[in-house]
Structure formats: structure tokens, C-alpha cells
Design a protein that fits this description.
333 residues, alpha+beta, Phosphorylase Kinase, domain 1, Aminoglycoside 3'-phosphotransferase, Chain: A, domain 2, 2 domains, globular, Kinase-like_dom_sf
């Protein structure tokens, strides 16, 4: 029994939280009015996530008072602390004050790398500490029905959604030349994973399933892309380009981030925006592959087919834009 001291109580209310795309999330209220968060892992999540890595980070974050405290785990889920708060909405992202708060929150999360640094500090895509490239390699391999995860065997296999492994590796090599410090990244900071505390108004990030070491450009790009998604709207699986942050909104966000970042570097606003633009390509690829896997295994009511198709189209469009801007050689197919 996870909580023997609560054995004399029963569940008074079980409320499912909408908008979760990997797990089923519930608020559990007991008869003494205590509340907890229950996460039930989605079908096939072990192919998408490294639960051991997630629990390791939750153990590291709890002493730092980051996010919700982990209370207990079971075979296919866990209980977390309930934080008296309200979840941000899609509209909140466009609020100038809230956007600055989110930029500050990301800067604070990224600074955790100073407390828990990776074992290797090389920014190259071969760095085993990074989450993104091994993750993409694993998902690409799964979609090829290929049990091997070595790049050499992947390059000789069939393309996934018209994307070859050679194309991905060519872009990896290009990104090796784009300076982007390795940070502790949330990697999924959409509005549903940000809470506003009722007592203080402070913002708190939750749901660190995909968290780990990544280039800061990736994490910042991922959040900016999330401006286009309203998971509680009429078409939750589709991006709305008209909601993408405008130039002045990007500048305001980046300025707030740089003002609070632990690295007091000479990085300019334009340099960081270029860094973000370059890494946005990888965000589209990552979540496009994720959507294809979820399409075949998830039981959550979400149009993964439409989501993945659009994300992979956005990947190709963003890739072509960066190629044109940066003179990247296109691999022959």
C-alpha cells in the first residue's frame, strides 16, 4: 500500500484533467478534502519515455522546490503533490506579463545545469548527455520497424514519412556549428504544463516526463512553437500560425530570458533568435515522429494523424527555410 496512513479514507471525487496527451491525469480528492495528482501512464509510453530518467530528475528537483513533489509510484503511474493553482490557458501565452514570467521561469530551469551538470559538456550532437538526438534516433528506428538504433543501419533503411536519416544527420552536423549551451531543459513547456500559484501568482512548471539535458535553443524554440497550439480549442491537434509570436513578442521574451539567464554572456537578442529558429526545425521533427508513434498506440482521444502530418510538413518547411538562409547542402536521395 502506497499510503497506509490514508487507508481509513475513501475517494470523494475523481476528476480527469483534459489536455494531457501522453498520460491520463486526475485530481483525486479524499473524504478529508486532501487532494493529490494521479498520473496513469499511457499505453506504450515506455517506447517514448525513459521513466528511470524522469524519476531521477524528479528526485533532483524536489529538494530544489521545483515542480510538484513526487509522493509515490506504482507499476503504471504515480501520485504527486497537488499544488493550489490554476493551469495557464492558451490565451495566457500572449499576455505580455505572463510571457516575461515564462521566460524567467525557463531561465531558472535552465540554470539547474549548474547544480546538476552533465558528465560531458561538448555541444556536439554526439554528446551522450543530450536527450534530443538519441530520442529522435530511437523513435525513427521504431517507425522503421528496425530494432537497431545505430545511425549506420538507419541510413540504409527506408525513409520515414519521406524523411531520410541522411537528411537528419546533415542537419545535426549543421547544428554543431550553431552555438547553443547545454542546459537542463523541460522540453515540453506548453501552457498545460505551467501552473500559476494561487497564493503568490508565481509560475511553476510541472510534468517533467521529457526533461533532460538539451541545447537551450531547442527548449526555447519548443515553447515558442507551442503558442500555435490550443489543446482545448476547436481543432486541438492543429497549429494556428496566426497565433505564433510576432517579432516584438519574440524580442520581449528573449530579452527577459537573457536578463535572467545564469550565463552572463555576450549573446545578443538577434543571435538567440537565430539559435531558436535553427532548433525549431528539430522540434517539428521530434514531435512529428512522436505523433506517428502515438497514432498506433495511444488510447487518448486526440487526432495524432493530423498532428503528426502537420508537424512533419512544418519540419520540411522550416528545414528549407534554414537551408536557404544558411547555405546547407541537401543530401542526395
Amino acid at each position: 500500500m502506497l499510503f497506509p496512513h490514508l487507508a481509513h479514507l475513501s475517494i470523494a471525487k475523481l476528476q480527469r484533467v483534459s489536455g494531457a496527451l501522453t498520460n491520463a491525469v486526475f485530481f483525486v480528492t479524499l473524504t478529508n478534502n486532501q487532494r493529490y495528482v494521479l498520473r496513469v501512464y499511457g499505453s506504450g509510453c515506455d517506447q517514448l519515455l525513459d521513466r528511470d530518467n524522469e524519476l531521477l530528475w524528479l528526485a533532483r528537483l524536489t529538494p530544489l522546490k521545483i515542480g510538484a513533489k513526487l509522493l509515490g509510484t506504482f507499476d503504471n503511474g504515480r501520485f504527486e503533490e497537488y499544488l493550489p493553482s490554476t493551469t495557464l490557458t492558451h490565451a495566457c501565452l500572449r499576455d505580455p506579463t505572463t510571457s516575461v514570467q515564462i521566460a524567467t521561469l525557463l531561465a531558472q530551469l535552465h540554470s539547474i545545469v549548474q547544480v546538476h551538470p552533465p558528465t560531458q559538456s561538448s555541444p556536439l550532437h554526439t554528446n551522450p548527455a543530450l536527450e534530443i538526438w538519441p530520442q529522435i534516433r530511437k523513435w525513427y528506428s521504431l517507425l522503421q520497424n528496425n530494432s537497431s538504433s545505430s545511425p549506420s543501419s538507419l541510413s540504409s533503411g527506408k525513409a520515414v514519412a519521406g524523411i531520410t536519416w541522411d537528411e537528419i544527420e546533415a542537419y545535426q552536423r549543421f547544428l554543431d556549428r550553431v552555438q547553443s549551451p547545454i542546459v537542463f531543459a523541460h522540453n515540453d513547456l506548453q501552457y498545460g504544463n505551467i501552473l500559476r500559484m494561487k497564493s503568490t501568482g508565481d509560475l511553476v512548471a510541472v510534468d517533467f516526463e521529457y526533461a533532460g539535458y538539451n541545447p537551450r535553443g531547442y527548449d526555447l524554440a519548443n515553447h515558442m512553437i507551442e503558442w500555435q497550439y490550443n489543446y482545448h480549442g476547436e481543432h486541438p491537434a492543429l497549429a494556428s500560425p496566426q497565433h505564433a509570436p510576432r517579432r516584438h513578442q519574440q524580442i520581449s521574451f528573449v530579452k527577459a530570458y537573457l536578463a535572467n539567464h545564469h550565463l552572463k554572456s555576450t549573446t545578443t537578442v538577434d543571435q538567440l533568435l537565430y539559435e531558436i529558429d535553427c532548433w525549431s526545425v528539430v522540434c517539428h521533427l521530434c514531435w512529428g515522429l512522436w505523433g506517428l508513434i502515438q497514432l498506433h498506440q495511444s488510447e487518448i482521444d486526440f487526432d495524432y494523424a493530423a498532428y503528426s502530418a502537420q508537424r512533419l510538413t512544418m519540419f520540411q518547411q522550416a528545414l528549407q527555410r534554414i537551408r536557404n538562409k544558411s547555405n546547407i547542402t541537401t543530401p542526395s536521395k
